[in-house]
Amino acid sequence: MPHLLNVWPSVSRKLLAADRVLLVCDYDGTLTPIVARPETAILTEKTRCLLSILANMDRFVVGVISGRSLPDLESMVAVPGLVYAGNDGLEISGLGVDFVHCGASDFSDSLSEIARKLQQELSDVPEIVIDNKRLILTVHFRNTPDHYSAQVDEMLIATVKPYVESGQMKITRGTNVAEIMPNISWGKGRAIEQIRRGCGDNPIPIFFGDDQMDEDGFVAVQNVGGVAVYIGGTRQNTTALHQLESPTEVEQALTLLTQL
Ligand SMILES: [Mg+2]
């Protein structure tokens, strides 16, 4: 898996060959380092400034996509002129797009029910955060001592099992996080396709992401000749063909993009 900065000349040629570029970035672990509490994952001023410069360039359409809710994501990034996709793209807003996946809200009662059950079942697990964002339920256990992880996994699977078996819900497990979401055919990949369709001129997509939830985004952009960049150590199993080590290197890549 080549390091993006090592093969930048060929990647930049590819991007320059297109009239426009759709740049999409995940937030946590991609634009900001993973931190103990989600509310402290603050964007650096430099990254915010680079996103703003790119959003103002004719060559770019810039989007941010995250498992966070749309209002949370918008307030964390706070750069005007971007497309924001919250809840893994079940809701998208910006640049004339105002989209909520039509099937997703039908599941909000079940998600509330699951959230209530998990609060009870996991009440003795320290530092667990159950975040019901209406369209997706996220369980964070970054700060939970490692020896609880088997118990957390067991409880999660047992609690969600009836909903999974009835075909209502699915679980995606990331690093110290699990997402429970409606079992509909949707994900970051479909959301990126939706944003790209909205552009009207088929820009070449480049997508930066760090987690399991980003994998179908990688596939979606590579399927249309775009560039997928995995953020993290080299040994992780990923479909992305390019890699960067850290959000600091993402910042370097964004700087290079402003020079296109
Ligand atoms: Mg991430």
Report on the structure:
The chain is α/β, with parallel strands linked by helices. The chain folds into two domains: 4-101 and 186-258, HAD superfamily/HAD-like (Rossmann fold, 3-Layer(aba) Sandwich), CATH 3.40.50; 104-182, 2-Layer Sandwich (Alpha-Beta Plaits), CATH 3.30.70.1020. The protein contains eight helices and twelve strands. It has helices at 8-16, 45-55, 70-77, 108-121, 149-165, 188-199, 215-223, 247-258; strands spanning 21-26, 60-65, 83-86, 91-94, 97-100, 129-132, 137-140, 169-174, 177-182, 204-209, 227-231, 242-244. The strands form two sheets. An eight-stranded mixed sheet has the order 5-4-3-2-1-10-11-12, with helices on both faces. α3 links the parallel β2 (60-65) and β3 (83-86). It is globular. Residues 26, 28-30, 210-211 line the site of magnesium ion. Magnesium ion binds next to loops.
Biggest sheet: strands side by side, in what order? 5-4-3-2-1-10-11-12
Q: Gap between N and C termini, in Å?
A: 23 Å
Q: Unreliable segments (pLDDT under 50, ≥5 consecutive)? A: none
- Rg, alpha carbons: 18 Å
In short:
The protein has about 260 residues and is α/β, with parallel strands linked by helices.
Secondary-structure blueprint:
Blueprint: H1 8-16, E1 21-26, H2 45-55, E2 60-65, H3 70-77, E3 83-86, E4 91-94, E5 97-100, H4 108-121, E6 129-132, E7 137-140, H5 149-165, E8 169-174, E9 177-182, H6 188-199, E10 204-209, H7 215-223, E11 227-231, E12 242-244, H8 247-258
Parallel strand pairs: 1-2, 1-10, 2-3, 10-11, 11-12
Antiparallel strand pairs: 3-4, 4-5, 6-7, 7-9, 8-9
Bound molecules: magnesium ion (MG).
Magnesium ion binds at residues 26, 28-30, 210-211.
